[in-house]
Specification:
The complex is a heterodimer. Chain A is mostly beta strands. Helices cover about 0% and strands about 60% of the residues of chain A. Chain B contains no helices and 11 strands. Chain B is mainly β.
Chain lengths: ~110, ~120
Amino acid sequence: KQEVTQIPAALSVPEGENLVLNCSFTDSAIYNLQWFRQDPGKGLTSLLLIQSSQREQTSGRLNASLDKSSGRSTLYIAASQPGDSATYLCAVSTWVAAGNKLTFGGGTRVLVKP
Amino acid sequence: KAGVTQTPRYLIKTRGQQVTLSCSPISGHRSVSWYQQTPGQGLQFLFEYFSETQRNKGNFPGRFSGRQFSNSRSEMNVSTLELGDSALYLCASSLSSGASTDTQYFGPGTRLTVL
């Protein structure tokens, strides 16, 4: 059974500092890994998707790495801004019975202080 | 292109009642998945529908059911509501092309409160 863990559960940094968010998973047989952002009471916004064959993916200030062999992914957010305050979730995709299922970590709640 | 829409956005029900939630996927997407989000359990997979057929099911009791229509719109039903069913219910759509680039796009969710 796939289990996804995100540590720390909460993080507070001053504006301008780089953010490093960690995600680990127990089963390396994944299809892809997605990072999402969730604002309070809202749905999920997809930030980055890393295919299982890739090592990293970049979008603007965001960079995500994937090490399947060790079951780890890291999301880097450069030069954090107060608008980056949100909960960040990672989810691994496994192909089950010809369907796509996401298993989520518990999330890291980020606060960027001005 | 319009995103995933969910209706209603908020619902208040009492124990024992039943409720139906609706999800309209992104145009062209054939897969719709449902997730339950609670503070204690986080995000948990309920089920996935593809071409009007349930393809995967999570570990939830039979009170949770769903269906998908020919236009890919999906409904989720919860019967005999319990207090513990209070949660944010999210639906996600994807092309489900079988490619590892298959991205799931989430709707804004339906906040269900059971009193």
